[in-house]
From TrEMBL:
SUPFAM superfamilies: NAD(P)-binding Rossmann-fold domains (SSF51735). Residues 8-192 form the NAD(P)-binding domain. Pfam families: NAD_binding_10. This is NADH-flavin reductase. PANTHER family: FLAVIN REDUCTASE (NADPH). InterPro entries: NAD(P)-bd_dom (IPR016040), NAD(P)-bd_dom_sf (IPR036291), Polyketide_Oxido-like (IPR051606). GO terms for molecular function: oxidoreductase activity, acting on the CH-NH group of donors, NAD or NADP as acceptor.
Length: 209
């Protein structure tokens, strides 16, 4: 299996590359500048400059793109559209590092995490734009995509426990009543999905046990 990790220099991208290589998978880092991941194979190219030819040899493409400033937030949608167009109609699977803000907090699926009164205002613009990207992704029936939302508390420096639970469209709590996962455990879940491919054209979620 050949896997490309786009934006492999980011914090989650580096974790995914590391996890994949530790399992003996063939991982290529896709980076805009110098490769700072542990991958020895790299494509040095801006995401928007990638072509279908660049990705044609990969079984799975993992999109770890993230944007945080007001002027770059719309890139969540435009970057995803670009990647979808590159793998349209092909067997290549597109796995997306998603957000938790668009997870539902009721069984009717009428209220999302970002709608809650205690959701921090500072994170709302990111959550809204990542939610728009997911809405767009759902229209792409020509792409074998999977969108993986982390738990509400996504911990960059959290430890790797190796234990997690899959969820669906709703915010999932663990046995301690918490919605939390480390970047390392999320990377494990991402690589598991890359290998197994159990959730084609679905949004799923993951939480530490």
């Amino acid at each position: 299996m050949k896997i490309a990790v786009i934006c492999a220099n980011g914090k989650e991208g580096r974790q995914i590359v590391k996890e994949g290589l530790e399992r003996g998978l063939n991982i290529t880092a896709v980076v805009r500048g110098e490769n700072r991941s542990v991958a020895t194979q790299a494509i040095q190219k801006d995401l928007f400059d990638l072509t279908a030819s660049d990705l044609k040899e990969f079984d799975v493409v993992i999109d770890a793109f993230g944007a945080w400033t007001p002027e770059t937030l719309p890139l969540h949608s435009t970057s995803l559209k670009h990647l979808c167009d590159l793998v349209s109609g092909k067997n290549t699977r597109l796995l997306v590092v998603g957000g938790a803000g668009s997870l539902y907090i009721n069984s009717e699926h009428t209220a999302q995490v970002m709608d809650a009164p205690d959701f921090p205002d500072v994170f709302k613009p990111v959550a809204i734009n990542m939610g728009k990207a997911l809405t767009y992704l759902r229209t792409r029936t020509d792409v074998r995509w999977t969108y993986i939302s982390p738990a509400g508390n996504f911990q960059a420096d959290g430890v790797k426990t190796g234990k997690y639970m899959w969820g669906g469209e709703e915010l999932l709590l663990n046995s301690n009543g918490e919605s939390v996962i480390s970047y390392a455990d999320y990377a494990s879940a991402m690589i598991d999905e890359a290998v197994n491919g159990n959730h084609i054209r679905q949004r799923i979620s993951v939480v530490s046990e």
